[in-house]
Design a protein that fits this description.
4 helices; Immunoglobulin-like; 24-stranded antiparallel β-barrel; hydrolase; about 50% strand; globular; single chain; mainly beta; nine-stranded mixed sheet
Length: about 800
């Protein structure tokens, strides 16, 4: 089988290179860039979404938009012309958009809140690149439902965690809809030059026609869209004011749990200071993350820790630089103390307090980019010393046990951009713990190179970790190398990914599997413009060959086919088909160097997604997995209907069901700890989720978020012992009376909130939250009985009110001067 797979890989490589070479002569990137000259003004317009005042009469018009999708390159419809005007002064850019429509009653206008701009509403996008480097953009969005949003972009990565304070208003009349924006310079970073060399793009999305247009033509078949900006001239001699913004907040929280009540008050402040026009300092002083979204906790029976995405705004916003090198995972900051699960107690002692997080004392970020394209990012955070409290049940005396020392986390990134959409970055992450605890330092060098024709991308990554333990230094290495074609219909990709057995970035990063080498080959066929009933389709073939590094042996290979189709009527469907060779799992045994063998397997699945423009739409997915000549099987499906009752009210329900039978799984170790005991395991999971939003307008909204996740696991009592070659033999192992590997886990979370954006950058949020969870050893319990048992446990009720106010210090100085 291995020889056959390698032969197939070689054939696939040859096909990929042949197709790529056939396209080489036609892949030269030729961009015709429009030029628009912005107008300096002495006064500012009223931002009310009605750009008809005398202010705009003298401003030149940018027009003649070109279709981006679905018929790339066609001129705009005569019935749907788009015009844009741009002006500036020493404080801000001013943008007016005129989106004409001969059938204004058909303009979709679903209401939504900040950054939720891809709803069923028309969309206006203004992209500005203050470095004119064809890589970076800051994007500002406005919808026909008068919602706004912002994002930063590097190449093909768009990050909506970026949040700044700008003004945007939109209106609709009998001729179409209109947008006005005021984009203060405090929201942008740019070189300190007398004459600015900027570029820009404007995009219009017409939902009811399912068409997108751009001011400067974007060839969607070649390169990244950031490479197709128009030139923005005329911006010169600007003298921006002081960039110092304060975000003071206060919060009151009322908790009720198991008959106990607690009322707490807190206050703090975030700060954003423009050190120069190009660099910004962000700091959070006395942080409070009491209203962050709940984590989607699941029953975890695997060999790796369960991690969750970042929900804290300070660490989410503008984190693009810190993703370089793939060595930074912000959830490590303030994580569960490393010693919280290893507390040793005496027979007469109880743990009465064991904090689940280490409190963050403060954090700051320094980010920006020089005129020469050098991006600099520094992040530093400090968490406080954390202790658990243990009480002697006989004497009543208490003692404290250190679970996490005072810890400093630091991340440094230097990212040099060059050429055509290319960059090389050096990243370093360090963790310093007070006292004789483990410290760590991880360094990465990342190259992302695109050739001048925008036809090929090359990526390289080298990583090195050092952990300084009381017993010495542990050093490990990892890396990857990739090549992919980025233009044309045939797009091959080749890659190699390796991680040494000693590589460990987990003090401030995230890496679970070690000691492996993966060789990857992909070949995709893309149809990106309308053809017949399809707006877009892609058929992708993937092959993976996996090996252990030390010692070297084959751990498994797979081949996958992924077709995806999207019709003119916005109905999407596709499939997943995969075959896996025999696998040698290095991690299920929980013993280094000891593998568990799994038989060859296959997976078949498919999905559909209907037109979201209709009031009722549905997403559905189903799949089936089976091992060959082995009893393990798995089934899963997910249904997610949604109904838009009105432009104000949307409700989405998701039901997910999974069942896995007869999986050979780890139970425990033998008495001497030298080997693993396994048995067949059945698992069953059901999840219900509801999300709903009622938007009174773009400043007031009610939101509901509900999740109930249930999982059970039942292990066969016919145990097997692992042998050296990864197979198993029958075992006479027997569980003790107090031992039971079965599991029943149920978690319930409900958030109900009211948000009021009472001024730009300022918000009041009232949140009601309740939560309950239960874990026991009932492996045969039904879902209904598990939910019933869940509510036999105490439910936590949480009420909180948080008010954040945006204060522009420069504007405040103007107020005081006026009052004086």
């Amino acid at each position: 089988m291995n020889r056959q797979l390698f032969s197939f890989l070689l054939v696939l490589f040859n096909i990929a290179f042949a197709k790529a070479n056939l396209q080489q002569e036609d892949s030269t990137l030729l961009i015709k860039r429009k030029v628009y000259s912005a107008t300096r003004v002495a006064t500012s317009p009223v931002i009310d979404g009605k750009p008809f005042e005398a202010f705009w009469n003298k401003i030149p018009v940018a027009k003649n938009f070109v279709m981006r999708e679905p018929r790339n390159g066609e001129p705009e419809r005569d019935t749907h012309k788009t015009k844009v005007k741009i002006a500036y002064d020493d404080n801000a850019l001013y943008v007016a958009g005129y989106m004409y429509d001969n059938e204004p009653e058909r303009i979709l206008r679903q209401f939504s809140q900040r950054d939720n701009v891809f709803v069923q509403a028309d969309l206006f996008e203004f992209h500005i690149n203050t470095y004119n480097n064809q890589i970076n953009q800051t994007r500002f969005f406005a919808t026909s439902g008068n919602a706004l949003g912002d994002a930063i972009v590097e190449g093909d990565r768009q990050d909506f965690s970026f949040n700044v304070v700008f003004l945007s208003e939109s209106t609709i009349d009998e001729n179409g809809w209109y947008v006005e924006m005021e984009i203060p310079y405090r929201t942008l970073r740019f070189p300190e030059n007398e004459v600015q060399d900027w570029s820009f793009q404007v995009v219009r999305r017409i939902r009811h026609l399912n068409e997108d247009y751009s001011y400067n033509f974007i060839d969607i078949t070649t390169g990244n869209q950031t490479q197709y900006d128009a030139l923005l001239t005329g911006v010169e001699n600007i003298d921006p004011p002081l960039r110092l913004n304060l975000y003071p907040f206060s919060q009151v929280v009322y908790n009720v749990f198991d008959g106990e009540e607690e009322l707490t008050f807190s206050a703090g402040m975030d700060l954003k200071y423009g050190i120069s026009d190009a660099f910004t300092l962000d700091a959070t002083l006395i942080p409070d993350f009491g209203q962050v979204a709940f984590d989607r906790v699941e029953l975890n029976l695997g060999p790796f820790e369960q991690t969750f995405g970042e929900n804290r705004a300070f660490f989410i916003e503008g984190a693009d630089l810190f993703s370089k090198g793939d060595i930074f995972f912000s959830r490590r900051i303030g994580q569960t103390p490393t010693g919280a699960g290893r507390i040793e107690t005496l027979d007469n002692e109880d743990i009465i307090d064991n904090p689940s997080t280490a409190n963050l004392l403060n954090a700051l970020k320094f980010t920006g980019r020089t005129d020469g394209g050098l991006g600099i990012g520094v992040l530093n955070a400090i968490t406080e010393r954390t202790e658990a409290t243990i009480r002697n049940s006989e004497s009543g005396a208490t003692r404290n046990v250190l679970t996490e020392p005072l810890t400093n986390y630091n991340m440094l990134v230097l990212d040099q951009q060059y050429g055509n959409n290319s960059s090389i970055a050096l990243s370093n992450a360090s963790t310093l713990r007070n006292g004789s605890f483990t410290d760590a330092n991880v360094t990465a060098l990342e190259l992302n190179h695109n050739n001048k024709k925008a036809s090929d991308n090359y990526r390289g990554l080298l990583q090195m970790s050092n952990r300084f333990t009381p017993d010495g230094t542990e050093t490990g290495y990892a890396g990857e190398a990739q090549w992919r074609r980025t233009t044309g219909k045939w797009r091959p990709r080749l890659g190699a990914f390796w991680v040494g057995d000693s590589y460990n970035p987990n003090d401030l990063g995230r890496q679970f599997q070690t000691n492996y080498l993966t060789l990857a080959s992909d070949l995709s066929y893309l149809q990106q413009t309308q053809q017949g009933i399809f707006n877009y389709y892609e058929i992708e073939l993937r092959v993976r060959h996996r090996r252990a590094l030390t010692p070297s042996f084959h751990t498994g290979s797979d081949i996958t086919l992924n077709p995806f189709f999207a019709t003119v009527e916005r109905f999407s469907f596709g499939g997943d088909f995969q075959y896996n060779t025999e696998q040698k799992d290095q991690f299920e045994s929980r013993i280094p160097g000891q593998v568990v063998r799994y038989a060859p397997s296959y997976y078949m699945g498919g999905f559909i997604s209907s037109d979201y423009r209709k009031k009722f739409a549905i997403d559905a997915r189903a799949g089936y997995f089976s091992r060959i000549d082995d009893p393990e099987t798995s089934y899963d499906y997910r249904l997610s209907p949604r109904y838009r009752f009105s432009d104000e009210f949307l409700l989405v329900y998701t039901y997910q069901w999974r069942k896995n039978n007869n999986r050979l799984s780890y139970v425990t170790r033998t008495d001497d700890g030298s080997n693993s005991i396994l048995s067949l395991r059945n698992t069953h999971t059901v999840e219900n989720r509801i999300s709903g939003t009622y938007n009174f307008n773009n400043r007031h909204a009610l939101s509901l978020s509900f999740r109930n996740n249930w999982s059970r696991a039942n292990f066969s009592r016919e145990f097997e012992e692992l042998t050296n070659d990864g197979t198993t033999t029958e075992s006479d192992f027997a569980l003790q009376d107090d031992e039971n590997p079965d599991a029943n886990f149920n978690v319930w979370n409900l958030d109900f909130s009211y948000r009021w954006r009472f001024a730009p950058g300022s918000e009041a949020t009232f949140l009601y939250r309740n939560a309950a969870n239960n874990f026991d050893k009932q492996g045969q319990i039904s879902y209904v009985d598990s939910v019933s048992n869940l509510f036999d446990n105490p439910i936590r009720h949480n009420f909180s009110l948080r008010i954040t106010y945006f204060l522009d210090v420069n504007q405040a100085r103007s107020w005081f001067s006026s009052n004086s």
